[in-house]
């Protein structure tokens, strides 16, 4: 008969509860954790010393902030208990940017390069800045809104792209047969290889934010003929104007993980295009 306990009769005692030691995790800026007691979920803003001991401040997707005492196993990451450890000094140390890139240690100001990334509107520019701003500042690349792409070819003619003065353009709703796809084809034909135009499939950049980040089940489908943003606001019952709605949506974005992958690849492609060489 086999020995169910092996050589050590206490080693695998089935009546003794197993003890799992939580993993130690540094409270890096932007790390998303959940408080095991309250269920409050947010990204790390800072760690500090207080009269209660070491604390961490979290910010949720609605911009609300709460402070928690750091104690053993008090936080969850993907449902697993962890020991959240404070950063070595001051605000939580950031090893990665909001886009997921390794954070640069350089903080010196740079003169902007001649190359540009153009997006259709202000909301597009604000979203790109929120997630890729640190990366773009490190590369000294400026993002500018076109405020509409109907005269993209004319704007490019005024800009005069060249090998050291490239333009990457991100257009809304660039699907087969759309007006945007024709605009892109005309721009590339006139200014390649110093202009690269790509687009995302969304009606508006709002849709690039994951519904789960905003706290909704899905982005509503709006009938043709109804202004899209106003239709979304009405369907969601938000009772506000589009500017306020956008602030709410933008506040829900903390890192690249809050965006649809279809947008991520396109923005990274444009950054690569304007920073080459």
Can you tell me about this structure?
This protein is an alpha/beta fold. It folds into two domains: 1-95; 116-275, no CATH class. The chain contains seven helices and eleven strands. The strands form two sheets. It has a seven-stranded mixed sheet with strand order 1-7-6-2-3-4-5, with no helix packed on it. Strands 9-8-10-11 form a four-stranded parallel sheet, with helices on both faces. The protein starts with 22 loop residues before the first strand and ends with a helix. 27% of the residues are buried.
- Helical content, roughly? 25-40%
Number of helices: 7
Tally of extended strands?
11
**SSE topology string:** EEEEEEEEHEHEHEHHHH
Judging from the principal axes of the Cα atoms, what is the shape?
Answer: globular
Number of domains: 2
How does the helix and strand content classify structurally? alpha/beta
List keywords for this structure.
7 helices; 2 domains; 11 strands; 4-stranded parallel sheet; disordered N terminus; 21% strand; 7-stranded mixed sheet; 277 residues; alpha/beta
Secondary structure blueprint with pairings:
Elements: E1 23-26, E2 32-35, E3 41-50, E4 53-59, E5 65-69, E6 75-77, E7 80-85, E8 116-119, H1 122-139, E9 142-145, H2 152-159, E10 167-171, H3 179-191, E11 195-199, H4 211-214, H5 228-236, H6 242-251, H7 261-275
Parallel strand pairs: 1-7, 8-9, 8-10, 10-11
Antiparallel strand pairs: 2-3, 2-6, 3-4, 4-5, 6-7
């Amino acid at each position: 008969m086999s020995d169910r306990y092996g050589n050590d009769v206490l080693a695998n005692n089935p009546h003794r509860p197993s003890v799992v030691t939580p993993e130690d995790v540094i409270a890096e800026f932007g790390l998303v954790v959940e408080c095991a007691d309250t269920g409050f979920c947010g990204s790390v803003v800072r760690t500090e010393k207080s009269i209660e001991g070491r604390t961490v401040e979290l910010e949720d997707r609605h911009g609300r902030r709460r402070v928690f005492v750091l104690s053993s196993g008090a936080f969850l990451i993907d449902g697993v208990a962890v020991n959240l450890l404070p950063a070595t000094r001051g605000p939580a140390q950031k090893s990665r940017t909001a886009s997921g890139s390794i954070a640069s240690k350089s903080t010196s100001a740079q003169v902007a390069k001649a190359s540009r990334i153009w997006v259709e509107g202000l909301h597009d520019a604000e979203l790109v800045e929120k997630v890729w701003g640190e990366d773009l500042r490190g590369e000294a690349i400026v993002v500018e809104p076109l405020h509409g792409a109907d005269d993209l070819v004319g704007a490019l003619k005024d800009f005069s792209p060249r090998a050291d003065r490239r333009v990457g353009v991100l257009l809304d709703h660039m699907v087969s047969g759309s007006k945007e796809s024709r605009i892109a084809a005309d721009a590339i034909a006139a200014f390649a290889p110093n202009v690269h135009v790509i687009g995302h499939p969304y009606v508006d950049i709002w849709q690039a934010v994951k519904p789960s980040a905003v706290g909704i089940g899905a982005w509503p489908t709006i009938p043709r003929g109804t202004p899209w943003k106003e239709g979304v606001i009405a369907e969601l019952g938000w009772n506000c104007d589009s500017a306020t709605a956008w602030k709410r949506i933008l506040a829900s974005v903390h890192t690249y993980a809050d965006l649809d992958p279809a947008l991520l690849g396109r923005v990274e492609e444009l950054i690569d295009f304007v920073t080459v060489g």
